Amino acid sequence: KTSVILSQITELHKAVLECSMDDEKNDRTKGKLHTLALGIPGSLFQDHMPVAAKMAADVNSALKSFAESSPGGKMHYIDFPIPYINGVGGDGDGSWNEDGVHMTKKGYNRLAKQLAPKVKDILDRMDSD
């Protein structure tokens, strides 16, 4: 199952990058698009299902390797920046809902603030390509 998940994600990223190479209508973006894969976060489900935690870790590891080997460095990977550890998300700061799977509004705001610099870096690279 891990290979199926990984294949679907990597094929999506490849398709986006190939599409940008074929974009005859838009010279501004032709060959300049980048993609970003965000790692699968921990969860209460993974705490109770070690096989799911292993699968998520394997997918994240493989996505990171895939991004590192992508031609032209156009595929990027970021580990999920807000941990979910032993039933407590983040720093016990209320970033995760009680269901142990979804984030709270505070958590999503925190996620946005942590991802914004990386997204800006990618956009800056697109401008310099």
Round the mean pLDDT to the nearest integer and report it: 85
> What is the strand content?
5-15%
DSSP strand count: 4
Estimate the helix proportion, in percent.
Answer: 40-55%
Q: Report the structural category.
A: mainly alpha
Largest sheet: 2 strands, parallel
Rg over CA atoms: 17 Å
Trace the largest sheet across and list its strands: 1-2
Describe the global form.
globular
Poorly predicted regions: none
N→C terminal distance: 36 Å
**Would you list the SSEs in sequence order as H and E?**
HEHHEEEH
How many distinct helices? 4
Helix-strand blueprint:
Elements: H1 2-21, E1 35-38, H2 44-48, H3 50-68, E2 75-78, E3 84-85, E4 88-89, H4 105-128
Parallel strand pairs: 1-2
Antiparallel strand pairs: 3-4
Helix pairs in contact: 1-3
Task: Give structural attributes.
mainly alpha; 129 residues; two-stranded parallel sheet; two-stranded antiparallel sheet
